[in-house]
Amino acid sequence: DEVELWKLKFIRHEHFTGLINAKSVGGWQATGDIITFLDCHVKPDIHWTEPISKYIYENPKTVVVPTVTSLDPNTWEETRSVAGTTRCCKLTWNVDFPWYNAEDTRVPIMIGGLLAMHRNMWEYTGGYDSGM
User: Fold this and answer.
1) Whose C-alpha in 58, 73, 77, 87 is 20 to 30 A from the C-alpha of 43?
2) Residue 130 counted as domain residue
3) d(C-alpha 100, C-alpha 102), whole Å
4) Which CATH number goes with the domain that contains 39?
5) Residue 116: which domain range?
């Protein structure tokens, strides 16, 4: 059973709470060392947790954001491969966020809904802003 294998816990709200509040409740209920948030349109690769865990355990203050690729809507296969690359995005004045290969992965901005961090960092930052 996948629920037992992955130690999944489903939390159901009685009323609509909104995306960020739902993620926040999940973050505070999580019991693992690493808290990860993905959206339903994200397709993790095989062994996707290994590089994320490596970065976070090397520096527990690290927040890891996955590279967002394009998926074919009919096959759910990637339309371009970025496997094995370290990619960063930047915000431009055109309010675009192009991806590029980078040696230095430290960036001052990130996508707020797709991320992984150590539990201690989650607690230190206070989690998601409940007013969002």
Assistant:
1) 58
2) no
3) 6
4) 3.90.550.10
5) 2-125
